[in-house]
Every structure is written in C-alpha cells, then in structure tokens.
Amino acid sequence: MIIDVHAHFDDEKFNCDIDECLKKAKEAGVTHIINAAVDYETSLKSLELARKYDFIYCVLGIHPDSADEYSPEKLAAIEELIKKEPKAVGVGETGLDYYWLPKDNPDEVARLKALQKVSFTEHIRLSERLRLPIVVHDREAHKDTYDILKENLSGKVEGVLHCYSGSAEMVKDFEELNLSFSVGGVVTFTNGVKLVEAVKKMPRERILIETDSPYLTPVPYRGKRNDSSYTVYTARRLAEILDVSYEYVCRLTTENALRVFGRMH
Ligand SMILES: [Zn+2]
C-alpha cells in the first residue's frame, strides 16, 4: 500500500487514458490519491474526480502561479466547496513560487510577490479555521515561505511541504511548525543530492510520498508523463536512503498520510 499525497489527474495529459492510469496505480498498490487543485476551475475538476473514483481525494485552493486569480470572494467560494465535500481533505495547493516571476520586470515581480503572499496567508488562515491540513508549494522562496507559515500557523493543524526542495538544515524549522515533507521523483535523480540529505534529517513520522503527476517522473521513467504507479520507485529509493525495507516505507508513509489528512479513510 502506498498513498500518493499529491497529483494532478485533472491535467489534460490524462484526458485520453485516465481509467487505465488509475487501474495501473491500483495494481501497483496505491490505495489513495490526493488530487491537488491549482485554481477554482481545477477545484471543481478535482471534486468531480473524487466523486467518480473511490480512492481519489482532493485538496482545494489557488496555486501561487495563479495568484492573479486570488480574491477573498474566490477563496470564500473554495471554502464552501471544501465544507460541502467530505473527500476534500485539505487546503491547497498554495504557497510561493519565485521561479516563474518575470525577472526582467521588477514592478511586476513586486506586484506578484505581494499578491502571492496575501493569497498564501489567507489560505493558511482558512486551513486553521477549518482545522484541515495546508498543502504548501515552495519554489525558490524558502525563507519567505517559512516566515509566513511561522507567523500564521498555530501548530494545531498539520500541513505538507509538497515536493520538498528546502535544505537539510531547514527541515527542523518546518518540523517545529507541525509540517510534514512529501517526497517525489526528484529523490531518484542523480542531481537530487540535496533532497537525499534533507530526507536523512526528516523525522520518520513526517515523511510522505507523492508523484506531482504528470510532472517530475522518477528514474527510470524520468522525462515521461508521471502517474501514481511510479510511487513505487520513490518508495524504493527512500528505503535505500533510510536503510529500511520497501514494505516499511510503504507502511510508514501510509500511516503518516492518514494522520496528516485525518479526513481520509
Ligand atoms: Zn502540484
């Protein structure tokens, strides 16, 4: 059994063969998939998937790359969706992404950063209000991500740093905020050394597995479309790094995911 805590099966890359993909995932031992929305439209699509497939759950929110979509009204509409749907198990994905900012346009960079921060902060407040975990996207924004989380989290809700890309040193800081770390295909890459070092510092009860499908496919399928069945390669690599059995990694990360996403069963 493996839980893929972060995937995007609403992506058009799955339009033609989603049933086949999900069947393949089940055969590989995947028991739950959490589909992450990136805006209002994909929140609706994620809900559709969760209603159609018994082992799909979802988290709903606005991605930092879609920060222009953020408004208090939009987030209030997403809040209503979460409240009505028991298979909506968290808030996100939200966070900060400085990688895609238009670096040749400083005014626009400042505007988008400010907007991302407001949206992120309001998502955290929503997760606190609903007592549901927050799913955080952090790309090239570790310091600001940490500062905003520290300022706004009470420590009472759990949360996930999806596709963790921070340093080994920062693991302790995030851990103190009651956050867990989800690890994806990057851990199998030859240039994934930084992540391997971080994994060694992660408390075992805070390690989760994800694919971020259709992106970040693990070796030996790197470069191809990702799907949840490939979690097995990430789990195998984790077993190697932690020097434990594959079965142990599956059991551990499953227990962790069920604790963090307490609404999932
Ligand atoms: Zn994602």
Write the layout of secondary structure elements.
Blueprint: E1 2-7, H1 18-27, E2 30-36, H2 40-52, E3 56-60, H3 72-84, E4 88-97, H4 106-130, E5 134-139, H5 142-152, E6 159-161, H6 170-175, E7 179-183, H7 193-201, E8 207-209, H8 231-242, H9 246-260
Zinc ion binds at residues 6, 8, 36, 93, 212.
Describe the structure.
- With 265 residues, the protein is of the alpha/beta class.
- The chain has one domain: Metal-dependent hydrolases (TIM Barrel, Alpha-Beta Barrel).
- It is built from nine helices and eight strands.
- The protein has helices at residues 18-27, 40-52, 72-84, 106-130, 142-152, 170-175, 193-201, 231-242, 246-260, and strands at 2-7, 30-36, 56-60, 88-97, 134-139, 159-161, 179-183, 207-209.
- An eight-stranded parallel β-sheet has the order 1-2-3-4-5-6-7-8.
- Strand 6 (159-161), helix 6 (170-175) and strand 7 (179-183) form a beta-alpha-beta unit.
- Helix 2 packs parallel to helix 3, helix 3 packs parallel to helix 4 (106-130) and helix 8 (231-242) crosses helix 9.
- Structure class: alpha/beta
- For the largest sheet, list the strands in their spatial order: 1-2-3-4-5-6-7-8
CATH homologous superfamily - what is it?
Metal-dependent hydrolases
Write the CATH architecture name: Alpha-Beta Barrel
The helix/strand order is: EHEHEHEHEHEHEHEHH
Query: Looking at CATH, which topology would you report?
Result: TIM Barrel
| End-to-end C-alpha gap | 13 Å
The CATH class designation is Alpha Beta
